[in-house]
Write a structure and sequence with these properties.
Two copies of one chain form a homodimer. The first copy, chain A, has helices at 7-16, 32-44, 62-67, 72-81, 92-95, 108-111, 122-137, 149-161, 191-196, 198-214, 217-227, and strands at 2-4, 21-26, 47-52, 86-88, 104-106, 141-145, 167-171, 232-240, 257-265, 268-276. Chain A has two domains: 2-171, 3-Layer(aba) Sandwich (Rossmann fold), CATH 3.40.50; 184-275, Pantoate-beta-alanine ligase, C-terminal domain (Pantoate--beta-alanine Ligase, Chain: A,domain 2), CATH 3.30.1300. The radius of gyration of chain A is 19 Å and the shape is globular. In chain A, strand 6, helix 8 (149-161) and strand 7 form a beta-alpha-beta unit. The first copy, chain A, starts with a strand and ends in a 7-residue tail after the last strand. With 283 residues, chain A is an alpha/beta fold. Chain A contains eleven helices and ten strands. In chain A, 39% of the residues lie in helices and 20% in strands. The A-B interface holds A 7, 98, 101-110, 131-132, 135-136, 157-158, 160-164 and B 7, 98, 101-110, 131-132, 135-136, 157-158, 160-164.
């Protein structure tokens, strides 16, 4: 596995392997979820490039940025074993050579919902770094986990609206055996917190079951909130999976529903979601 | 001169002439100002591509959009004569195939000033279309007139911050013999309006002279406003040419000052500007 650290070298690599690259952008501290993206990229492309960059512009809370776990040696070992061709691991100074840019790439009515509502600037930071990684690498395909569903949706729209030729591939989120969504942040949980966190996916699964049985948004939302009563909840909603508008009982159901939550356990912010397709409306 | 109308064909042309293209994006109804950009592009590049597209997303007033002058036959003749290699003249439906996108590319603290203050969404529209034209064509250089100084500044910053390899070349604005800045909109002026419009550049030149003599922002601003008393003025200010902040008397002078105005004559919005460099401060 080749390792490079400058955007200049990344452009050169892209020029040599034009239209053959599958790209997996990450913030490091890799787990099986990331490796499933790498596996998918390997199956679909001649070359697989992974980036590791903890992007300061997408953290609204500097403390959260500082606490983000890092283990470069272990990450390299995992990627080497997974057969990755190139690891791009830039320094912050190489990415933002003139300080954080003041440009903003925005979807005003998608970024103010769910994870965006309480994290001003988060998704602008995500889209800016993804935009520029795509400019340097120009991958044929890029892989994003559906655990960060809103991120996947925004990146997919940006790639289309800003005329990238990159295909955005959304990959299923992976869960631990007890259902907890895999996350680099799980390592920060205490033993008790880790136990409690199982309740997050259980609440999502219950809400989904209730919806599947009743086709009632209100019943599913009630079930979700009841099961999450033990948590400090940032949001817990049923939304239109395309517009991210919160669903209300009695209005027409969308093609796909996103049931999504963000909660705090031991002060660690954890997110999870499931997608559910309403019954077809009979004609 | 080849003429194409689809973004797909534009990408193909770009692939054949990679890194050899000088690009002049326009909204058509061409005058000598545009042709001076073409001339510069011809001198610096192997191929010159001009686009004509009256971009609806940058007009905040639909009436202004409808009234924007169009003369395709004359434009083609001028460009043919100027030795342009390719004219890109897309339909609106080819550019925004899924309706106007909701993505916004913004510089919040640059877009709310001068031409941006009263024209919500104008520069977002400009940056979006320029971004995508660059994505399709990937020119080595792109040429913008300094008459739209704020547009030039924003495009230049965007090209840098979003990692385009395109060099943005700012070209001097051209004036009629009596000093009126050349503009596609001048054709909409009545004979009396055309006479009156001479006062715009005169006011700018006076203000510049006053500043050069006094190095006083207040004196130059007063001169500007006095000379523009006969006009309906949208803005008339001395600004920091890099940040676009309005200058105030007594604060340190920037490296370069933009004296810029927007006025209405016969209901036609006309803009003009001059740049002036303050005397070096002795050490």
């Amino acid at each position: 596995m080749e390792v490079i650290t400058t955007r200049h070298a990344l452009r050169e690599y892209a020029a040599r392997h034009s239209q053959k690259i599958g790209f997996v952008p990450t913030m490091g501290y890799l787990h099986e979820g990331h490796l499933s993206l790498v596996e998918r990229a390997k199956a679909q492309n001649e070359k697989v490039v992974v980036s590791i960059f903890v992007n300061p512009t997408q953290f609204n809370d500097p403390k959260d940025f500082e606490k983000y776990p890092v283990d470069e040696a272990h990450d390299k070992e995992l990627l080497e074993r997974a057969g990755v061709d190139l690891l791009f691991m830039p320094s912050r100074g190489n990415i933002f050579s003139e300080g954080n840019p003041t440009i903003r790439i925005q979807y005003p009515h998608l970024m103010d919902k769910l994870c965006g509502e309480k994290r001003a600037g988060h998704f602008e930071g995500v889209l800016l770094i993804v935009h520029n990684l795509f400019m340097w690498l120009n991958p044929a395909r890029a892989y994003f986990g559906l655990k960060d569903y809103q991120q996947y949706l925004l990146v997919q729209k940006m790639a289309r609206d800003l005329e990238f030729t990159t295909e955005i591939v959304g990959c299923p989120l992976l869960r631990e055996k007890d259902g907890l969504a895999m996350s680099s942040r799980n390592v920060r949980l205490s033993s008790a917190g880790r136990q409690q966190a199982v309740g997050i996916s259980q609440a999502l699964f219950s809400s989904r079951s209730v919806f599947q049985e009743t086709q009632s948004v209100r019943a599913a939302a009630d079930a979700l909130r009841q099961e999450l009563a033990q948590f400090e909840v940032e949001y817990a909603t049923l939304s239109n999976a395309e517009t991210l508008e919160t669903l209300e009982e009695g209005t027409p159901l969308p093609k796909k529903i996103l049931i999504a939550v963000a909660v705090f356990v031991d002060g660690v912010r954890l997110i999870d979601n499931v997608l559910v397709v309403p019954h077809a409306i009979s004609i």
